[in-house]
C-alpha cells in the first residue's frame, strides 16, 4: 500500500484465513478493505492454471477477494459471491 497513490484500488485473491492473526489486525486497522467478497462455495484453484493435475470434486479451502482503495478509512463491506 505504501507505494500506491491515493485512490489506487488493489484487489487480492487470498485464502479466508488471511483475516486472522495478531499482526494482521494492525494492518487491517490501518488499511481497511473497501470490500471483502467471500465465495459461498469452495472455489477450485490450480497452480499456474494447470487444472489437469488436481481433483475437481471438492476443495477444503475457502477463498475471498479483498479490495482496498489507498486512503479509504470507512467500514468494510462483506458480501458473498454465488
Q: Classify the secondary structure makeup into a structural class.
A: mainly beta
Number of helices: 1
- For the biggest β-sheet, the strand order reads 1-3-2-4
Helicity range: 10-25%
Which residues form runs of ≥5 with pLDDT under 50?
A: none
Main pleated-sheet profile: 4 strands, mixed
DSSP strand content: 25-35%
Number of domains: 1
User: How would the global form be characterised?
Assistant: elongated
As a whole number of angstroms, the C-alpha radius of gyration is 15 Å
User: Topology as H/E string?
Assistant: EHEEE
C-alpha end-to-end distance: 29 Å
Chain-averaged pLDDT? 89
Count of distinct strands: 4
Q: Which features characterize this protein?
A:
single chain, 82 residues, mainly beta, four-stranded mixed β-sheet, 1 helix, elongated
Short summary:
The chain is mostly beta strands and 82 residues long.
What does this structure look like?
- By secondary structure, this protein is mainly beta.
- The chain has one domain (9-81).
- 11% of the residues lie in helices and 29% in strands.
- The chain has one helix and four strands.
- It has one helix at residues 22-30; strands spanning 9-15, 35-39, 63-69, 77-81.
- The chain has a four-stranded mixed beta sheet with strand order 1-3-2-4, with no helix packed on it.
- It starts with 8 loop residues before the first strand and ends with a strand.
- The mean pLDDT is 89.
